[in-house]
Amino acid sequence: GNLQARHMQELIEALLEVGGYFSVENPYGSYLWLSPFVLDVTKRHTTYFVSFDQCRFNLRPPGHRWNEYTRKRTTLWTNISELRDMNGFCSGQTCRHKHVHAWGVRKVGKKTIKLATAAGQYPLDMCNMMATCICKRLKPNRGMPLSFAEPGPFQ
CA 20 to CA 38: how far, in whole Å? Predict the structure, then answer.
């Protein structure tokens, strides 16, 4: 709760102090977005709230039918302006796009899978979009290398 938000603020402040980037994900409408910690940082730094439905990035329940998606409305709070490319909500359900709520369980083969747990995994299309946006920010002509980590002593 509040202790985690306080630690998050300290980490974000440290990143901002050295020109770093951050992104925090939480449900759309989360109380975190109204917390004094978040509001304090947004007053002093340029940040963005990016909201979207994960069904747009192919979040699907386990054992899904051809037309089943999980909406999961989500917000990112970030200082990476390029992530705003992810903004957008689902245009609505059609016969080709039905929303399945992420609660309860579903039997897939011999396994019983909790839908909320399954919806906690980011869909690959969302990961790819985030990576594309972040790479735009880090592209070499801005003076930043595309490599995120230096080789360690064992590599």
Answer: 17
Say how far apart CA 41 and CA 55 lie, in whole Å. 30
pLDDT band at 153 (very low <50, low <70, confident <90, very high): very low
What does the alpha-carbon distance between residue 114 and residue 62 come to, in Å, rounded to a whole number?
Answer: 9
* β-bridge partners, 53: 73
Residue 2, Cβ density class (10 Å: 0-12 exposed, 13-18 middle, ≥19 buried) = exposed
pTM of the model: 0.86
At 81-108, the pLDDT tens digits run 999 999 999 999 999 999 999 999 999 9
Asked if residues 11 and 27 have their Cβ atoms less than 8 Å apart, the reply is: no
The Cα 115–Cα 131 span in angstroms is 26
Give the burial class of 119: count Cβ atoms within 10 A of its Cβ; 0-12 exposed, 13-18 middle, 19 or more buried. buried
